[in-house]
Amino acid sequence: MAQQIGRNPVPRRSYHVFLSFRGEDTRHGFTDHLYAKLKQRGVITFMDNQGLKKGQSISTELLRAIEESLFSVVVLSQNYASSTWCLDELNKIVESRRLYGRGIFPVFYGVDPSHVRHQRGKFAEAFIKHEERFGDDQDKIRRWRDALTEVANLSGWESKDRDEGELIESIVEGVWKNLRPQLPSLVDTLNVIDSNIQEIDGIVRESLENFYRPKQNDPDRQPTKCCCFSIRL
Predict the structure, then answer these.
(1) Which residues form the TIR domain (predicted)?
(2) Distance (Å, whole) CA 164 – CA 188
(3) Total domain count for the chain?
């Protein structure tokens, strides 16, 4: 289930994973448990704990968090498509995949992947309401549908006939397997630290030498020995 990172210039990486989910379906249960396990594994995960009130638009903070996450885990549940907020999130997630090569992991939680892919069942019902509300903005409707179809065509996990604990462990390991190659090694980190320390050491040496160096054309000033130190990792 390897996913590649694109070659285009990308925003800074503030998070390893962005969690997209329908709060009323999975917040107090599956998604909370998944977040806890990801955190326990050392995966820096963005999970919106506030939610939006009815009528609010997705915030710029949330959009930025999506851009700055290496991967997104999308928990597609029964009422996911009924939320325009979730659909806007998903559209941004797909956009980040196309522009920056960000990875997407779909989790089909209590839903048939084909229903997501073709907007059937609960997803069809949701879009009937969206058509009524946003009928004059067919581009928005099309983007939402295309995003669902694209994500549903990706390899992911299904909750059907699976123990929830085992499912979460499988997701965490799958995410970690794809994330690990993106993380700097301990050796790389130590080399950066050593390079920074040597740079600071040079600055300190130069500053001390300048401070203690006798002023030119001052015969009364006696030279002062300079005591420098060296920092090594």
Answers:
(1) 13-183
(2) 37
(3) 2
